[in-house]
Amino acid sequence: MSARPPLYSRHSKSPLASQSPFQNKELEKEMYASSDEYVESGDEEATDRKNTTTESLQQNGISPKATPQPTNSKRKDAMQQHILESARPQQSSQNLKIVLAIVVILSAMVCLYLLPQHKQKQCTFNKLREQQPVQSSDVWKALTINIENLLNKRTKSPNIYLFLYSSKADEQPLKQLIQAIALETSKCFDGQQPIEMTVKDFETNSGDDYGYPIEQYKKKLREGNVFLIGSLNDIPPNAARALHTICDTHSPIAVDVVIFLTLRTTHTITDGSPSNLAYQTLRELWKDVPDNELDALITRVIDQVLLLHS
What we know:
This protein has helices at residues 21-41, 44-59, 72-114, 126-131, 137-151, 171-189, 211-220, 237-240, 243-246, 274-285, 291-301, and strands at residues 159-166, 195-197, 226-229, 258-265, 305-307.
């Protein structure tokens, strides 16, 4: 350990006093360096020596140097700088995501604009509407809306229409109107003639065999999409049971099919709604059908009832 420098009393003359200003500065540096070295190493004697050196400097009119300490403002500035530098990558990443999202949206819009737009198919019945002003507008609305939904694939179930008219009405003009509606509907699909199923197609080979009409229906499906089935008043009750399968809209044999049925009623047209009138008339016509089948059969046949006026 280095020898401790001699101490001087308050009244003795310090070596620093006899030195020139330049020499005082040099000596001051050496004394500070020596004392700081030992203080940093934890030497207690060096600490005492530094204190003595400080007193000596003060006696010779030299202010001891204080160890510079960082100010609060400098610490705050450094912390803010660190936060800003940390936030820059996150902000840059967010900006990149926003730019990519905008590019994707614009690309999608351009693709939609450039792709060919599929023209919606229409089936308006405008000519028939003009020729038949006596018919309710509800008839034409029901035909147009539901058939166009089927044409444009907005629905995946057959359209079942039951045309109801009074037995007192002039039947021939109404039959012609129904034929014209079926023909116009066929034009909306493929332009082929409507497919007719007559009473002969519903004749069963044996008592309870109603599978024959179903097989006939499947064969005729190859010919087109629009079916015109003969008057329900003329179909035997047992054979009519085949309509439960033919008019199924939940698990149909074919999806894009329109089926037109006709029914005469002896009930007064003003006695109830078209659906109720059709229901009562069919219960009377098909009373020989087992009760556990009758209601389900009628429900499928009267899916959409359109009342025609003569």
